[in-house]
Amino acid sequence: MTKEERLEKQRKRADELKKYERDYRALGNAYIAGVDEVGRGPLAGPVVAACVVLDPEYEGLGIDDSKKITEKNRERLYDEIRENSICYGFGLCDNNVIDEINILEATKKAMKQAILSANNMLQPERDIDNTDDLLIDLILVDAVTVPGIYTKQISLIHGDATSISIAAASILAKVKRDRLMREYDDIYPGYGFSSNKGYGTQAHYEGIKKHGITPIHRKTFLKNL
Questions:
Q1: Which of 53, 128, 146, 181 gives the lowest tally of CB atoms within 10 Å of its CB?
Q2: Per-residue CA distances from 134 to 8, 82, 119 (Å)
Q3: Distance CA 70, CA 8 (A)
């Protein structure tokens, strides 16, 4: 495949991913946010969510579901997305919160944090914890609905593969969490966190057997060990 053919393929894919955003913007929604999370399945580390409102003029070449993109391209797109966004924000719930309220509720809590953080870039003078009258007009969320947010939400199954805003959020969340897990690998060596990102690989299980659990392990995920 030539460079031009590759670019044309990326343009076609980006155009496909922009359908929801085009349709809802035509209905008068100026600020359309995409929200996604990373880290629901690992045995260790936090769940991380991201929210992003992309500049409508941003071409978005190469954006897709974060799982379909190489680490090198995710890192590049992480900076590019932030530079071409109207606003963005992150939310995080650590293993202790996950153990306390369960992974689904922790995911929703992290998503709410991300939405409020992104909206605070648009309205820095407002109380970040006030969920009424957000400037964000519409929120596209991958597969769930975020409680406590009164802006209109649309839950899209496989949203990270069908909406460019959700796909962009998935990249931001993935890179943010991967960087954090690499930092944890320096703090807690022997579990392979840099490579497995906390998922239950053979090296990770062997690390638990040899060294025990760390302060970042999710105890409710390790009941059968």
A1: 128
A2: 37, 20, 7
A3: 19
pLDDT of 225 reads 66
Which residue matches tokens 């069908």?
162
Lowest mean pLDDT among 41-50, 67-76, 123-132, 177-186: 123-132
pLDDT tens digit string along 143-193?
899 999 999 999 999 999 999 999 999 999 999 999 999 999 999 999 999
CA distance 61 to 64: 9
pTM of the model: 0.95
Which residue matches tokens 């045995």? 43
Counting runs of H as helices and runs of E as strands, what totals does the chain give?
A: 8, 5
> What burial class does residue 169 get, using C-beta atoms within 10 Å of its C-beta: 0-12 exposed, 13-18 middle, 19+ buried?
buried
Query: Which DSSP state fits 44?
Result: B
Contact 14, 59 (CB under 8 A): yes
Q: How far apart are CA 46 and CA 38, in angstroms?
A: 9
Three-state DSSP at 155 gives strand
Q: What is the C-alpha end-to-end distance of the chain, expressed in Å?
A: 48
Instruction: Decide if pLDDT at 224 tops 90.
Output: no
Measured in residues, the chain has a length of 225
Amino acid letter, 88: Y
Is the model's pLDDT at 128 over the cut of 80?
no
